[in-house]
What does this fold into?
Amino acid sequence: MSFYTILKMQQETDYRIDIQHLTELIDARGAKSVGLQLPEGLLRRARSISKEIQNRCDIPVIISGRGCYGACDIDTALSEMVDLLFHFGHSGEDRENIVFVEVRSKVNICPVVQSAIAYLEGDRIALVTTIQHVEMIEEAKKILETAGKEVLIRCGSGDGLRYEGQVLGCNASAVDPRSDEVLFIGTGLFHPKGIASLIEKKVVAADPYTKNIELIDPEPLIRRRWVFLEKALDAHHFGVILSPKIGQYKQNVADEILKSARDHDIEAHLILLDEIREDALINLGMDAYVNTACCRIVDDMRKVILLNPDEFARLLRMRDRMG
Ligand code: SF4
It folds into this structure.
């Protein structure tokens, strides 16, 4: 099924967005201008939200056209241009003029959970989902229990996690380690692949929109990372990437990496980069890079060696052992 078909289905099935609540916030704060930032899957709702706010509040609205991947990825330039920025689709702590607007899907997850049972081999299942579906997790649990499964649901820890069973692409702490395998309910493979590589368990990914079920085996994902690590053994110079995104800016981590590189006589350079794309890294011409921003960016690389900080630490230990 094509991306556009899925998008169309999502538009038809739609999400609940409480415009009344937004207009009350605008009134309460006396905002004279508003910015809207939405993730890709919701971007097509921007037009109707903008229209509603303009009609009801008679104030200018600016829609952020840049990509947005998580609560870590706020459009700070837009937040400086408007009195109030609504960031949709992720949970987070409101700050200054930035308000997080959680969005719930109206799609029924029960049919796909029922279908997923045939793919679950273990008895103990960790049940996880994204914020759009958290309200339906108890219904999913009942279906699995009726099928004789023990269902483990818990609240993860970390920025942006608020609900039982909620995961992020970079945080699978909601997965109970006692589970045999994981059932993920949600769209796409970004989250289930993240879970599989972070906790090294099989993930059954059940998409409530397409009704597709995918099995994610952690082994090839882990092997792929080792291939890059081995390639990095021969690298002479490293770029250490620092992101200016407010939720991904980690100066301390970058400083530590630079220090360890110095201690190991490795040439390293600090690079400030907003959108970390492979072509930009190729252009910079370093042998390899260490990424201090979103840990999932390494998955997008094909030709460039990009390591996360824990992988760089492992690389140094490997080099030490080799002498
Ligand atoms: S750091 Fe990456 S995976 Fe984690 S919330 Fe941000 S964009 Fe998503």
